[in-house]
Amino acid sequence: MTTPLRFSVLDRSLVRRGRPASEALRRTVRFAVEAEALGYHRFWVAEHHGVPGVAGAAPAVLAASVAAATSTIRVGTGGVMLPNHAPLVVAEQFGVLAALHPGRIDLGLGRSLGFTAPVRRALGHGRESAERFGEQLAELLGYFAAGPDDPVRATPSAGLRLPVFVLATGAGAGFAAEAGLPLVIAAVRGHEALREAVRRYRAEFRPSAWSPNPYLVLSRSVAVGPTTEAARRLLVPEAWSSAHSRVHGVFPPLEAPDEVLSRGFDEREREQFERAMRGHVYGTEDEVADQLQSLVDDLGVDELLVTTSGPDEEALVDSYRRLARLIPGAR
Prior knowledge:
Blueprint: E1 6-11, H1 21-38, E2 42-45, H2 59-69, E3 74-77, E4 80-81, H3 87-100, E5 107-110, H4 117-123, H5 127-130, H6 133-144, E6 164-168, H7 173-179, E7 183-186, H8 191-204, E8 216-220, E9 222-224, H9 228-248, H10 257-261, H11 267-276, E10 281-283, H12 285-299, E11 303-306, H13 313-324
Parallel strand pairs: 1-2, 1-11, 2-3, 4-5, 5-6, 6-7, 7-8, 8-11, 9-10
Helix pairs in contact: 1-2, 1-13, 3-6, 7-8, 9-11
């Protein structure tokens, strides 16, 4: 690649079929240590509730374990789903993390709700909570900016300027622009919708104490292998779990590529699986470098947040090693 680009990792602690969730969490921490050694800029964890195939339910807790196991890589969340939490509690949690690991903690915030209606009821928040995201975001940022005379102070967060990001798709990018925050965005509705959301974000961005300029992080699955087909196979397990969730309402544990491809898909499953396999970046190192350069040139990406998952830990780490060779100055 000819354009400098930061490379970071988002790990969602996906569970492998037949293995316990605890193993997925420990693997996340091991993976963070590997990502740090490879020269990645950030390592983020996610928040999901009541999903059988995802172990990461408490991002602040998992981020604390990752930060304790590493020493230089930035650690954060992609993201904390703010409608599920009181902004004061989020400010306190990340204030504690930032105090324990100064200069290394990020806070990525999303506005998604629980995966199913029963989960949303258990969390105590309905769809109206997502509609208050802008208000909640302003309240949260206010705790970090609080002065000695403010009636509520989030100890030890007051006065901190840890990086805050907004995870959004489509119109949600407006929250990041209005608050003057970096935007993390994924292409979930096609490239044209992604391009338009990015254009609006930059046009509407208001410089702030948090960020003087727009900053764009693109979240994308990236698989790198010794051959194009080997890289493509790395995408199969998560694509199938995603397709299964859309058809059956449950995101299942990951299966090996051969097990997935030997299944007898019905028409809906095949349609969703083929859709889930589209839009990713994969191939050999040279092929991936060309694809990423095209994204950088088209969208003006500042940072790439890689989200690839699979049941074969060795193959997955090999993919990240190959991708790390594209990082300027990587070890």
